[in-house]
Known about the structure:
By secondary structure, the protein is an alpha+beta fold. The chain has helices at residues 13-20, 24-36, 51-67, 73-80, 84-97; strands at 40-43, 47-50, 70-72, 100-103, 106-109.
Amino acid sequence: VALDEHGFSPPDDATLARQIGQPVNKVRQLLSALIGLGQIIRLEGDLYFTQKTVKTAENFLRQYAAKQPEISVSEFRERLNTTRKYAVPLLAYFDQTGLTERVGDVRKIIT
């Protein structure tokens, strides 16, 4: 739930630990358990997104594809109101899942 509050700019595990007043090791154990339950997705750079947040980004890309078959990192970043730090790993995740395909400087959205 604390991760949902930050949307597309979630805190890292150390920041999250400070915010909820728990030791980092305990927060990491909790995050690992939530990953195992499929509620959280860990992306490159130790970024943790809730399944809900990732689904929201996925839905955005599918709707965007109805108008435009490609999206740049900057457009994706702006539309999600986040930074490159979070936008690039999200797009890399979607590349891995097959929703997008990197073609030069843009992502082709596969529908």
